[in-house]
């Protein structure tokens, strides 16, 4: 079932007025747009410089039920689960025409935006942050249920944070499984079990999260985009040939530098051998 142990957020304002007027905020620019609504960078009108990312969930009649469910789930999970690598919820509010979720602003954007710009060291660092946040969720019996690059945000200190938990699942069943129809996410990140299951088959959403994590890692390391029904085992067997151009260039530079070091060492060795020969020759002259 959907996350129910915290479906009513701890901090929820029910407003008759506009959220931005109530909290003296103004929209600066659109940061992104998704299925449920839009995310805006906002700043305080009082000149304090406070910046938030505010996610708006449209409550039009045709999407009201779905978007309210996503809003309530995301706000509830973010307020119930605290971790350094999970996006926190500053506040949540329901207005007549929309619901709003205020979060910290992450100036470096998401991993989807940064894709193909990171060094291998940065990739491993980001993914170590992601797996810590994911492990914390799983320990609370919560599956993220929509892991992808676009749902990992990077702060000014270059730390990664898991976000967008509107599809999160809390699994109370002793088998740690859920109906496949509830195991959502982006199809290109689906596990083989999810792709092959019908909606009433029970599958493990935690393993589905781990599979999606692996796809993210592969995409960042290889430079390729995620693909549905892809067998990544074949790719892993030939990783070197499938490195992104940027990674290939870095690897080639390392190999070239290694060759130069060997060459310099060889020249130095030649000079040493030549010096030794001269010294020996001079000593032989003295002995004669």
Describe this structure in words.
This protein is α+β, with helices and mostly antiparallel strands and 288 residues long. The protein has three domains: 12-104, 2-Layer Sandwich (Phosphorylase Kinase, domain 1); 111-242, Transferase(Phosphotransferase) domain 1 (Transferase(Phosphotransferase), domain 1), CATH 1.10.510.10; 255-288. Helix content is 40%, strand content 18%. It is built from eight helices and twelve strands. It has helices at residues 19-22, 64-80, 111-114, 120-139, 192-196, 205-222, 232-236, 245-287; strands at 12-14, 25-33, 37-44, 51-58, 91-94, 98-104, 142-143, 152-154, 160-162, 169-170, 178-179, 202-203. The chain has a six-stranded mixed beta sheet. A two-stranded antiparallel sheet has the order 7-10. Helix 4 (120-139) packs antiparallel against helix 6. The chain starts with 11 loop residues before the first strand and ends with a helix. Mean pLDDT is 86; it is low at 1-7.
